[in-house]
Amino acid sequence: MAAMNPIKFLQEVRQEVGKVSWPTRQETLISTVMVLIMVALASIFFLATDQIISFIVQWLLALR
Question: What does the alpha-carbon distance between residue 5 and residue 14 come to, in Å, rounded to a whole number?
Answer without folding.
Answer: 14
